[in-house]
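Give me structure tokens for this 248-residue protein.
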Amino acid sequence: MAVSTPKAAVDSKAPQSEPPLKVKSLSYSNFEREDLTKPFETEEQIIDRMETNAARFIAEHYRVDREDAAEIVEQAFISGKNHDVDPLLILAVIATESSFDPKAGSSVGAKGLMQVHAKVHAKRFKEYGGLKAVHEVEAGIEVGTQILKEYLNKTGSLKGALKYYVGAAKHSHDGGYSRKVLSMRSHLRLAASGQVEAAKIQARAPSKFPENYRDGPVFATYGANLARAMTESYKPKQTSGSSESGSA
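Here you go.
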């Protein structure tokens, strides 16, 4: 759940320009889509295909209405581009926080898809009409993404940012939160690549994301390598005239 940044020094009178993302491996421009490119395919076509595949995975794995899933995915990609944050990471946080239910809420005041503490971040919702917008797809994802990016820049670390996001900044560990988020991101990456059925099977299996992962290059390549491995394991094998699919 998103919590407030302690003692955030923000001058309301100064021009509010968003700082660039420090953790480049998590940026919108570098979220592992280059290996999905097909001949003569435009950037827009690549993104459309990724969104369609991701929405199908979400709809089927979480039993969410397909149109609702598509709306959430589209907004995650829009917010990701707006704030230069990996949209699959945004979707993974949504999955972990609310299981894609915009009406989700907690006893401590966290609400919406990304479980933002609405009262703490009330100012962020003003442009969307106030706190009543916390359960709306656009407002919930936009505000949650803003907060996530701030934590990424504050800590310079994916694990650190997720600790802040879940409210565990002062604790020695995050209770497995970052592992859950990164595992779901790997499932979403596999689904976005077109391996939706493989992603669904992987998502039902115990997490295989390494405990000792590090930010940066390791994270940036993990999803792509896993996707390739899963793709290979699901290629049909001819045995005695019949085909079999490998398992994760």
